[in-house]
Amino acid sequence: MASSSNDLRNEEEGHSHQIDAPVKKIKMPFIITDNKQFAYVNVREFNNWRRINACQRPIDISMIFLWIVWFIAVIGFYSFVSFFFPTINQIIVCIFAGVLTCIQLATTLYIMFVETQDPVIQQQNKPRNLDYVKEMGVPVIGPDNFCHICQVTVERKTRHCKPCNKCVAGFDHHCVYLNTCIGSKNYSEFILLIYLSAFIALFFAACALYYFIQFFANKTQFKETVSYYFSSGKYAPVICDILLLLYCLFCLYAYFTVLELIIFHFKLWLYKMKTQEYIRKREDDPEYFENLKLKTLFKQRIIEIKDRQKTKRNRKRAKKQKQETEENNTIETEQESFDFRV
Ligand SMILES: [Zn+2]
Ligand SMILES: [Zn+2]
């Protein structure tokens, strides 16, 4: 494996004298299972390419997995679990869950389609270095903040995402499930999405669990609902109850997976770090995090938020006072000129 990679590198480095040769547009595979697959792509063609949005080839297989999970959860709720609610509750619950899933969908699409490339790159519009060979574990942006592919000096928080092959402002991480980078353009939406997804998954799981228990607590009502909406067969109630339990476990699995992500990003907020910074710090100085107390950090962040709000309020008040003083001065000047004319 390593020798084939070296062969490929040597072969590609041999292209360096053909700088003016026209570069073929890269034909990416439709699906990839691992970003390491990019190591075997022609360097000049790959450097000439960048990902513009998440639906562009290659699609990460994790994104297909995420959409399958989402469809099972949403379709399962509307075409199965919601039928167990009494009619009026069914309408209210469907509207409530519908609004939440629409916000969730809109947020997901925004994250996937927003252009995360650093605006500095677009403003400077420099030709890309097609001959740069990326190395595992070596950032494309040097210690002097110069990106060796985009050929632009960028901000300290900008990173060159290797799978997307572009510089991303405020880079946090490359999300394989959304097939895009998470940076300053979509980080808040990403946080909203994980909180919302956790809430929706927990809500769906709770509804399924409630009606799973109804099979034992209110058997007659449960059987009536099953025979009215699904089947009057002998085993239909038992099958429906098992399906409710499976659906509940499925949503709980989604909930705990997202909850893990929420806890991780909450810790990052306490550490005041981006995912990439955290990973690097963990590798360079593993003991650093052992000395940090999360409770103390949380108190500090709360104090900082309160201070920021106080400063904001004071600034607003000062601005208002300044405006009022200016208005009073104008009135006095007008009054004086009126007195003078009289
Ligand atoms: Zn770059
Ligand atoms: Zn990326």
TrEMBL record:
EC supergroup of this enzyme: transferase
GO molecular function term, any single one: protein-cysteine S-palmitoyltransferase activity
Comp. bias (Acidic residues): 326-342
Transmembrane domains' residue ranges: 64-84, 90-113, 192-213, 242-264
Domain of life: Eukaryota
UniProt catalytic activity: L-cysteinyl-[protein] + hexadecanoyl-CoA = S-hexadecanoyl-L-cysteinyl-[protein] + CoA
Location in the cell: Membrane
Annotated region described as Disordered, given as residue ranges: 309-342
Biological processes, Gene Ontology terms: protein targeting to membrane
Predominant location category: membrane
Basic residues bias: start-end ranges: 309-320
Known EC number: 2.3.1.225
The Palmitoyltransferase DHHC domain, residue ranges: 144-281
Pfam families registered for this protein in UniProt: DHHC (PF01529)
Lipid bilayer topology: Multi-pass membrane protein
Record-level GO cellular component terms: endoplasmic reticulum; Golgi apparatus; membrane
Comment text on domains: The DHHC domain is required for palmitoyltransferase activity.
Membership in a protein family: Belongs to the DHHC palmitoyltransferase family.
Name of the molecule in the record: Palmitoyltransferase
Species of provenance: Piromyces finnis
Phylogenetic lineage: Eukaryota, Fungi, Fungi incertae sedis, Chytridiomycota, Chytridiomycota incertae sedis
